[in-house]
Inverse folding.
């Protein structure tokens, strides 16, 4: 059963973007689920006055193009990438002739449209309703009877990868999630929705309201919750960057996550200019010569003799917004112990100093190995919030306990 807070978070996660993934089609099963959400919408006398003309680019491109050409030019520019275009209609009269004109039809159809859009958000689809179109063209080209009002056109599809996270300006911040983070004193807010590629999809919001691509600790927590609910010891989680994380239960409250392969090329980090990712040309006070690693999100790792001597609160903001990092950066200060363990402090992009960061711990092991500071590709990373076991064997694996506050 969905809680009140779950529903509010889903409503906040729903948005009307304009960047659709042109490579991902929508199945008939997915459309059936959207229409079932519409069918369950309440209406006056249960009359269900809504009607939908569905134009699927995959199986009826001519109808889809015909509807696209009915949109205003400004809407055509982005709606051309949506896999589905839908005409929303409302019946002017009740089905039973003795009831006459249905004055509530437009209201009920609007409610049905919202049900469709909310269900789309739950399925990690994006539905964008628009009013910028030529009604006369739609009536003529689709032979719409005078018994119906043309209400809106709805574009449906998967959102393009990175559509909201490439721009990290203040305009991209979600102040609702920032408020939740402030009230609960948490580093990140995680929204769990449905996925067609994994057991679930997680949306990650930083403390400042910006979206993040990856959170290893969140994956462990979500993995534990879903595995406990399903009574299984293995699940998968889809991220906004299309990475699929595998989670395994290896102890009572110990979760192991396959974080995927680290990315090491300059454009994969990404950096604003080509340079050696093992020796970035950055120097700020006592910090210099970091390694850049992408573990589903961008990191740099500095190596020092004593992590506690670094004024990370002062240096973190300057490094996070360095010109070399177009998407900003997560900063780790690493101290490789004689025992082979790594002591780590982290400044997290969009959050600040954090007690623990799973992807940073992974980046620290990869960077330490590449620099030759470690010979074993497995070690314990000690963060202020606790220890994580990190392994690197083609993919990077993170293991740690979860806890409840």
């Amino acid at each position: 059963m969905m809680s009140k807070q779950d529903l509010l978070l889903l409503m906040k996660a729903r948005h009307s973007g304009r960047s659709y993934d042109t490579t991902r089609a929508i199945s008939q099963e997915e459309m059936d689920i959207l229409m079932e959400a519409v069918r369950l919408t309440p209406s006056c006398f249960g009359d269900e006055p809504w009607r939908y003309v569905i134009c699927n680019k995959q199986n009826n491109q001519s109808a889809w193009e015909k509807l696209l050409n009915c949109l205003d030019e400004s809407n055509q520019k982005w709606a051309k990438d949506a896999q589905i275009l839908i005409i929303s209609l409302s019946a002017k009269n009740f089905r039973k002739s003795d009831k006459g004109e249905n004055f509530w039809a437009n209201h009920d159809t609007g409610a049905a449209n919202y049900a469709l859009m909310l269900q789309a958000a739950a399925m990690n689809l994006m539905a964008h309703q628009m009013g910028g179109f030529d009604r006369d063209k739609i009536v003529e080209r689709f032979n719409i009877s005078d018994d119906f009002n043309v209400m809106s056109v709805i574009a449906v599809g998967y959102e393009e990868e990175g559509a909201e996270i490439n721009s990290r300006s203040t305009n991209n911040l979600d102040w609702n999630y920032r408020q939740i983070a402030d009230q609960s004193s948490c580093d990140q807010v995680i929204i769990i929705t449905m996925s067609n590629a994994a057991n679930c999809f997680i949306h990650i919001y930083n403390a400042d309201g910006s979206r993040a691509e990856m959170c290893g600790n969140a994956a462990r927590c979500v993995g534990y919750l879903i595995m406990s609910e399903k009574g299984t010891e293995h699940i998968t989680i889809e991220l906004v960057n299309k990475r699929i994380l595998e989670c395994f239960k290896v102890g009572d409250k110990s979760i192991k996550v396959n974080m995927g392969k680290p990315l090491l090329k300059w454009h994969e980090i990404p950096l604003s200019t080509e340079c050696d990712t093992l020796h970035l040309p950055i120097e700020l006070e006592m910090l210099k010569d970091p390694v850049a690693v992408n573990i589903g999100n961008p990191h740099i790792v500095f190596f020092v003799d004593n992590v506690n001597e670094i004024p990370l609160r002062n240096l973190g903001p300057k490094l996070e917004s360095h010109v070399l990092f177009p998407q900003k950066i997560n900063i780790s200060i690493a101290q490789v112990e004689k025992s082979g363990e790594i002591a780590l402090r982290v400044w997290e992009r969009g959050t600040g100093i954090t007690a623990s960061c799973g992807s940073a711990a992974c980046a620290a092991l990869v960077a330490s190995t590449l620099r030759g500071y470690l010979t074993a590709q497995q070690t314990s990373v000690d963060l202020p919030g606790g220890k994580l076991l990190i392994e690197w064997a083609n993919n990077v694996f993170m293991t740690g306990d979860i806890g409840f506050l």
The CA atoms of residues 68 and 76 lie 6 Å apart. Confidence is low (pLDDT under 50) at residues 164-172. The first strand starts at residue 50 and ends at 56.
